[in-house]
Amino acid sequence: MKLSRTSASIGGLAAVALLGLTACGGSTDAAEAGTDTPAETITVETNNGPVEVPADAERVVALDNTSFATLKALGVEPVAAPKQLLPNNGFEDWRDDEAIADVGTHREPNLEALNEAAPDLIVGGYRFSEYTDDLAKIAPVLDVTPDAETPGAWLDGLRTQTETLGTVFGAEEQAAEIVADFDAAQTAAEEATDGETVFLANASGGKIDNGAGRIGRLLEGVNLEDVFASEDLDGESVHNDSGLAPETVAEADPDWMIVMDRDAAVSTAEDEFTPAQSLVAALENVWGETTFFAGDQIIYLNTDFYKTEGIQAYTEAYEQISEAFSAN
Amino acid sequence: MRNLPTRYFPAAVVLAAVGLTAASLLVGGYSITFEKLLHDPAAQHMFFVSRIPRTLALIFAAAAMSVCGVIMQLITQNKFVEPTTAGTAQWAGLGMLAILIVDPGAAPMAKMAVAIAFAFAGTWVFIAFLNRVRVKNSLVVPLVGIMLGAVVGSFSTFLAGTFDLLQTMSAWRSGGFSGIVEGFYEPLWLAAVVCVAAYFVADRFTVAGLGRDVATNVGLHYGRVVFLGVTMVALATGVTTVVVGFIPFLGLIVPNLVSMILGDDLRRNLPWVAALGVVFLLACDLIGRTIIAPMELPASVILGVVGAVAFISLVLRQRKHVNA
């Protein structure tokens, strides 16, 4: 998912320049919001090395969508968040809350609104990782997003992320529960699967394409094999998400198919809009004879998966996998 | 020397078109060989639901975009105008985006109708704009079109960004035939019908291409012909844009090559324009299909590279005749 970020960076620069100006002016919102006595801090390990964060952070900005659900579970209510990146379901309260400032998206972040929210901690990283330096001038930035680049690092990263957030917000027990749920789901999925081949699909723009670049991490925790993995298209290949003709999938004849429904994740439709299902159904003529289609061995990830991708999303995905495989 | 390409051109184009069509039918992700085609029912089935639809889609889209190019070039009396340089395709894209925002679950037919309506309106905006521009030298006209297209395109991008549809837009904008199977390409028959219809009214466009004054003097209802041309272009471009996305430059390179070799008689040229367009697009799609197999690069990406080079060399060639 490479995006043009020029305009966004310019916006970021402008906001930082503004910050500089307000700092020169003397009075800042942050000073008014903070207490006179210096707060206690703890040092945590992040993707950018050790960072000192306040031990009782109260004004939190949530930017990293992989951690929204965890923050919510730990009882954290942010003062600012990218409202467009909030999952469609389960975050209506945050989205509708006027008190939570909207910081735009990673493509066009509204760093002024973020600054006005006077945070004392920013949970950043992932889509916002390039702004870490700018954001650090506003408040300490906690980037504990799982490593998406290194193969095999995502799942451990999810655990570490959850544990670190638990420590920072003094909710170690809840965090441990979340990790335990995840471990249980992952183990069950690993045991339910037995080396079957799978096609990882992404439904986007009315087309079904290879989605291994995005959801290939799922396979780290289960005993499945990407049907196109042997095609010399490893995780770093730029062609990992390139077009794939339906007949090519039919030729590969995978045992299973796992679909990320990107169209549904960004859909604003209120009705029962299921783009991926209808796309797959329309391909019956081509896929009718394949193992995954004939045996109905297709798993549609939660429609919010594209916007969540956090430990809860993976827990659910593994539950779906073990349930589907046990039923067959 | 000038006669040599003129004499052999038709035969060469037909030969290339037939050869590439055969290649398009035989190359792909599913293993289909002559042998299997005769005996293996699975391969036969795949041939009919995947290969033939895709090849037909390529042929129809290529013919439609090339023919649209000629029609627009005659209407505007400019060699550099075609649906993607006049903004028509960008307007169709905006229409597609509009329906995605308003009613994402809409039927394909509804999407197409909206895209066609937008393409139609957009082409008129371009023509109305041209009527108000005094300097009509050969570079100003396409620049106006490209500029309008860029404005519409940026607006689409802004809208897509606002409604979180950027990836959806780019997935569909990149003009690929990889997803085309039975059930996805059928609307393109409408584009094919437009091509055939264009053949029957070709003479009128040829006369219109001489300019409003001359055309009116020889008894042509100029306004009606322009309206007919815009309608045909909007229909073909709208359908093609919705089904396969933008196909850049085809309408630019192909008609110019053909008129360089065969002259400017549209009725005689039209079949060759369509055929050469098919050759170009089939070749680009086959390249995209094979270089990173089993994945695919969209034909429009390859076409963009070829087209950009062709566009620049055409401009440089024209500079000798035009004092811009």
Describe the structure.
The complex is a heterodimer of chains A (328) and B (324). With 328 residues, chain A is α/β, with parallel strands linked by helices. Chain A has 2 domains: 3-170, 3-Layer(aba) Sandwich (Rossmann fold); 193-326, Nitrogenase molybdenum iron protein domain (Rossmann fold, 3-Layer(aba) Sandwich), CATH 3.40.50.1980. Chain A is built from 16 helices and 12 strands. Chain A has helices at residues 6-25, 29-33, 68-73, 92-96, 111-116, 132-136, 154-168, 172-192, 212-215, 246-252, 262-265, 275-282, 284-287, 291-294, 305-308, 311-327; strands at residues 41-46, 49-54, 60-62, 80-81, 101-102, 121-123, 141-142, 196-204, 207-210, 224-226, 256-261, 298-300. In chain A, strands 8, 9, 10, 11 and 12 form a 5-stranded mixed β-sheet that branches. A 3-stranded parallel β-sheet of chain A has the order 3-6-7. In chain A, a hairpin with a 2-residue loop joins β1 and β2. In chain A, α7 runs antiparallel to α8 (172-192) and α8 (172-192) runs parallel beside α16. The model of chain A is unreliable at 1-36 (pLDDT under 50). By secondary structure, chain B is mainly alpha-helical. Chain B has one domain: ABC transporter involved in vitamin B12 uptake, BtuC (Orthogonal Bundle), CATH 1.10.3470. In chain B, 76% of the residues lie in helices and 0% in strands. Chain B contains 14 helices and no strands. Chain B has helices at 3-26, 34-39, 41-76, 88-102, 108-132, 140-162, 166-173, 188-200, 202-208, 212-217, 222-244, 250-262, 266-291, 299-318. In chain B, α3 (41-76) crosses α13 and α12 crosses α13 (266-291). The relative contact order of chain B is 0.17. The mean pLDDT of chain B is 88. The chains are: A alpha/beta (328), B mainly alpha (324).
CATH top level label of chain B: Mainly Alpha
Q: What is the element string of chain A, with H for helices and E for strands?
A: HHEEEHEHEHEHEHHEEHEHEHHHHEHH
CATH class category of the largest domain in chain A = Alpha Beta
CATH fold label of chain B: ABC transporter involved in vitamin B12 uptake, BtuC
Shape label of chain B: globular
How many H/I helices of chain A? 16
Report the major sheet of chain A: 5 strands, mixed
Total E-strand runs of chain B: 0
Low-pLDDT parts of chain A are 1-36
Helix content estimate of chain A: 40-55%
